[in-house]
Amino acid sequence: MPISAEQIIDRSIRVANQTGLDANSSPVIDNSVVFEDLFPLAMREAVSYLAGNPEDASSLKQDHALTFTSGSAPLPAGVVTECLDSSSLNSSTYSGLVSWQPRYIDFIRPVHKQLGYYLISGSNVLFRAPGGAPGTFNGSLTLNAVSVPIPANISDDLAIGEDLANEVIVRLASMVVARVTDTLAEMKREDERKP
Predict the structure, then answer these.
(1) For the packed helices 162-193 and 5-17, what is the interaxial angle rounded to 10 degrees?
(2) What pLDDT sits at residue 23?
(3) Mean pLDDT of successive 10-residue segments in the chain (195 residues)?
(4) pTM attached to this predicted model
């Protein structure tokens, strides 16, 4: 179901307005700029939540082309690093011979040298080819990993499922409503403190 970030934001505004808060008491609810600012965070939270279910996780994976120089490539934007244990690094040469390795010491001194390993170090993906030494691989591989789809333009369609779209709508509306509720409570406390 193609849906744009703009449509998700519009639906989130409607959900936030239905919570019973008076939209006139807080212009934040009707302010799409606030929703736009919170959209990437809501999307990331929704993706991380749905990635906990293996059935949903597979639909959240995207292929990212990586070009390695001296065994290092930049980590693509949107990759959810906490879900890398379910990722894969592929090529026609190393298909099925590469494994995610979260610990650097095990990457440097692998138990099985006939396998290749990859890990995240800072904002880079490090790769050690099967039988190779760290920092020596040059070439292209494909990372298949759970990723947050962030559009270049708010009106661009996102290729996401209905479950993810609904999760983002609810999370985004909840974030704004929570902020409005906190603001109203703080205003009430300030009024009570006045002499």
Answers:
(1) 50
(2) 55
(3) 85 78 58 80 89 82 94 92 87 82 87 87 92 90 89 84 88 80 66 71
(4) 0.75
Sheet holding 61-68, edge to edge: 61-68, 139-146, 88-90
Vertex 63, ends 60 and 68: CA angle to 5°? 140
68: closest CA among 132, 112, 146?
A: 132
Residue with token string 């936030």? 16
Cα–Cα distance list, 173 to 9, 69, 87, 93, 94 (Å):
9, 43, 30, 46, 44
Residues 6+ away with beta carbon under 8 Å from 49: 167
pLDDT at 30: 60
> What is the model's pLDDT at position 69?
95
Domain coordinates in residue numbering, the chain: 2-55+149-193, 61-146
